Amino acid sequence: MITKESVLDALRNVDDPDLRKDIVTLGMVKDLSVEGNQVSFTVELTTPACPMKDMIEKACLNAVRMMVSKDAEVHINMTARVVSNRRDRQDVLPGVKNIIAVASGKGGVGKSTVSVNLALGLAAQGARVGLMDADIYGPSIPIMLGIRDERPKMADVNGKGMIVPVEKFGIKTMSIGLLIDEKQAVIWRGPMASSALKQFVTDVLWGELDYLIIDLPPGTGDVHLTIAQTIPVTGAVVVSTPQAVAAADARKAVMMFKQEHINIPVLGVVENMAYFTPAELPENKYYIFGKGGAAKMADQFELPFLGELPLIQSIREGGDMGIPAVIDEDSPARARFLELAGQVAQQLAIRNATMAPTQVLEIN
Ligand SMILES: Nc1ncnc2c1ncn2[C@@H]1O[C@H](COP(=O)(O)OP(=O)(O)OP(=O)(O)O)[C@@H](O)[C@H]1O
């Protein structure tokens, strides 16, 4: 006879490969029921974008069939509840579970392209996602999402005027480009940029989010410091390109996050424009700028390498037209960005399980 205990014992042999504990101990097995040879249960993962989802499901099935009964009819409901390890007072971004900053050592490496497609990639897999354009001096998110002409609405919350983020393709977004003329933003000085950013944090109704992606300005500067001091950023993703000079700049970005007064864990390094793929020969990869630079850099810092993204004309065209690669079913880059989203979500789950929460100066 199949019992609940025998099923649980079998499932104790299935490990979450990232968290390195079995799924029963981790409390991921829910709603177990057994009737005759019908066994059903839910496995609750830490992210809907988990790249190990299919593997864990198969391992559960095999464990019950091999260790309990080969005649068991097993129904597994794979779900996810994104965890947060925030321990701050939640004065800022109260309903936001995880905050991911996307950075680059220098401009033009595709940081905004990665931010947009990472946000959409997480949302495509079922997460609630927001995208904050903190690139105050050169906001490109409104163009990339095709919302240049939209203006956010205001809402009254307990007598305080709050900005309602613009929604597009299932994500919420806010950019200085949605409030003022893009050209004006370029001439802003440091203190103005910092106070605009603080508004994005305190005066925008982000609501409940699993992930908030922050597209940082290129390089290292005032805005980065403001963000590190006011927002409990869960982790950062550093974008690089293959050229040696780009890798050297990306190294500076990694060093910035490691500084004592910033101290934000780096989730990994992604290499954009790693190889060229012509539209008519999608299987061909040409490593025109050299190969393996960002992976080597990640290795030196003992950071995860989050993968290579191709240089494809349609990524640029999609960006200009407001149709990002993840939204374009025909884009050869779509699958790569979905993989990247899975890698980032996975590294974030590991970070939350193994490291202390990020500290910030509390706002009074
Ligand atoms: N993998 C890619 N293939 C083709 N074009 C790309 C790719 N990644 C980015 N681009 C294009 O390169 C240009 C710069 O990209 P993007 O604006 O994302 O860079 P950035 O690092 O955010 O720049 P900045 O920080 O200076 O604003 C854009 O026109 C974008 O569409």
TrEMBL record:
Entry keyword annotation includes 4Fe-4S: no
Assembly description: Homodimer.
Domain of life: Bacteria
Domain MIP18 family-like, first and last residues per copy: 4-75
Job description of the protein: Binds and transfers iron-sulfur (Fe-S) clusters to target apoproteins. Can hydrolyze ATP.
Span of the signal peptide: none
Alphabetical keyword list: ATP-binding, Hydrolase, Iron, Iron-sulfur, Metal-binding, Nucleotide-binding
Binding site for ATP: G105, K106, G107, G108, V109, G110, K111, S112
One example GO MF annotation: ATP binding
InterPro entries: FSCA_dom_sf, MIP18-like, Mrp-like_CS, Mrp/NBP35_ATP-bd, NUBPL-like, P-loop_NTPase, YlxH/NBP35
Source lineage: Bacteria, Pseudomonadati, Bacteroidota, Chitinophagia, Chitinophagales
Name of the protein: Iron-sulfur cluster carrier protein
